[in-house]
Amino acid sequence: MTVGGWMPGRVVEAIPATHSARILRLDVPGWPGNDAGQHVDIRLTAEDGYQAVRSYSLGSYGASETVELAVDEIPDGEVSPYLVEDVLPGDELEVKGPLGGYFVWRPGGEAPVQLIAGGSGIVPMMAMVRAATDAGAAASVRLLYSVRTTEDAIYRDELSSLSGDGGVGLTWRYTRAAPDGWQGAIGRVDAELLRTAVWSPDRQPVVYVCGPTGFVEHVADVLVGLGHASARIRTERFGGA
């Protein structure tokens, strides 16, 4: 039953994703489906009636009534510690959505697609990678994923399986420590990396950038400096470091 746009969602899976993140799958009866890149609001209500609402991107897309979130814990947060540490299959959460119509990808466009994610900003990009793969358009998509270490990469194994010949073009950037045998640079995303790993401006890609505010602003500014049209750069950001 929907009340004020809120729908009950029952947790059906709670899967560790990293040392600080969890993938949650919820069964939401009556869910209308969503485009890749959209998000939801999650509302928790305490026994004393206090309510907290937070927005989370969806890693899932399409018409299924099962939706997927990947939540990275903010240690002093009101909602994420509960979702990462305490929620169990069978628990119910209130869900409102799908929300957002700007930061979305739909099959059918001719331009190449560039995805750039920092940390848990990978979640909406995962939905786009899945959608592009299912639509047979994976070869037109490139993903640059910046994480502290390989252990901090949400969806690491699935992304690796969907990249390669005929798949999404995947580039990793490690900012703190790289895996054994790594031959690339270590550090923040910079102009050199964006020049070499991203579709060139002359290809006129549609670029999606998601991550912490500082990361998103830095990447967008560098992209414009490299010749990418600002009108073709779509951003989604969240607070925290």
UniProtKB/TrEMBL annotation:
| Gene3D superfamilies (alphabetical) | Nucleotide-binding domain of ferredoxin-NADP reductase (FNR) module (3.40.50.80), Translation factors (2.40.30.10)
Superkingdom of origin organism = Bacteria
Q: Which CDD domains match?
A: FNR_iron_sulfur_binding_3
User: Needs which cofactor?
Assistant: FAD
- InterPro entries assigned: Cbr1-like_FAD-bd_dom, FAD-bd_FR_type, FNR_nucleotide-bd, MRET, OxRdtase_FAD/NAD-bd, Riboflavin_synthase-like_b-brl
What keyword terms does UniProt attach to this protein? 2Fe-2S, Iron, Iron-sulfur, Metal-binding
The UniProt record lists the FAD-binding FR-type domain at 4-105
Q: Which Pfam families match?
A: FAD_binding_6 (PF00970), NAD_binding_1 (PF00175)
Protein's UniProt keywords contain Iron-sulfur: yes
Q: Which PANTHER family match?
A: NADH OXIDOREDUCTASE HCR, PROTEIN RFBI
Please state what the protein is called: Ferredoxin reductase
Origin species, per record, is Microbacterium ureisolvens
